[in-house]
Amino acid sequence: MRLTRAAACRSLVGCLFALSLSAPALARTPATVLDIASGQKNLTTFVAAVHTAGLDDLLRSSGPLTIYAPTNDAFDKMPAAERDALLSDPGRLKALLLGLTVKDMVLIHDGDSTITSGSVATAGGRELSFGGDAEHPMIGSAHVVAADMRADNGALTTIDKVLLQ
Q1: For residues 63 and 40, which has the higher predicted lDDT (pLDDT)?
Q2: CA 133 to CA 80: how far, in whole Å?
Q3: Is a pLDDT exceeding 90 seen at residue 35?
Q4: Is 41 exposed, middle or buried (0-12, 13-18, 19+ CB in 10 A)?
Q5: Distance (Å, rounded) from C-alpha 33 to C-alpha 103?
Q6: Mapped to the 3 state alphabet, what secondary structure does 2-18 carry?
Q7: Domain spans of the chain?
Q8: Res 27 pLDDT > 80
Q9: C-beta of residue 59 within 8 angstroms of C-beta of residue 50
Q10: Cα distances (angstroms) measured from residue 74 to each of 15, 43, 160
Q11: 51-56 LR contacts (CB < 8 Å, sep 24+)
Q12: Count of Cβ atoms closer than 10 Å to residue 102 Cβ
């Protein structure tokens, strides 16, 4: 088969265009729930706690995972001495964070519905209950700040309270 110069140019342009569309997808690193959390300005304390507890690998695993992450403001609401003691104790942090991690995908908003009742078992052996209403969903006694931030390995929902066990 013999191509004319114009046909060869069109073919080359088509190939380059297709490559330009697929290159970002090929270069994209999969975002994990830890990557999503690390990109949130209001979760720096949570991310530091994950590192201290040694749970980086869990939050980067293939999942699916759902993480209920207390915001910086949630940690700031704790008495300073209690917060400092918690954040410096890897064992307590690990127990706390596993109690906020579900080894399944649980979305607060799924289509037109919102989870406002029921409970789910966590990786730490805790039961987290859902409450509130469609406008103000709750996880335990914490209000949802931002729900269902999707990652390749699950979802991240931020909450306004540190749910100590």
Answers
A1: 40
A2: 32
A3: yes
A4: exposed
A5: 12
A6: CCCHHHHHHHHHHHHHH
A7: 30-159
A8: no
A9: yes
A10: 51, 10, 5
A11: 52/87, 52/88, 52/90, 52/93, 53/90, 53/93, 53/94, 53/96, 53/97, 54/90, 54/94, 55/94, 55/97, 55/98, 55/101
A12: 21
Count of beta carbons in the 10 Å neighbourhood of residue 46: 25
From the list 99, 95, 94, 91, the residue with the least C-alpha distance to 121 is 99
Assigned token pair, 3: 């191509």
Residue-wise pLDDT tens digits, 89-147: 999 999 999 999 999 999 888 777 788 889 999 999 999 999 998 889 999 999 999 99
Reduced DSSP (H G I as helix, E B as strand, rest coil) percent helix, strand, coil of the chain, to 5: 40, 25, 35
Q: Does domain 30-159 have CATH number 2.60.120.1140?
A: no
The secondary element (H helix, E strand) that includes residue 72 is helix 72-76
pLDDT (0 to 100) of residue 164:
86
Structure tokens at 42: 């209001």
SS3 33: helix
76 CB contacts (<8 Å, ≥6 apart)? 83
The rounded distance, in Å, linking the Cα atoms of 54 and 48 is: 10
The span from the CA of 142 to the CA of 13, in Å, is: 55
DSSP states along 46-63: HHHHHHHHT-HHHHHSS-
User: pTM here?
Assistant: 0.80
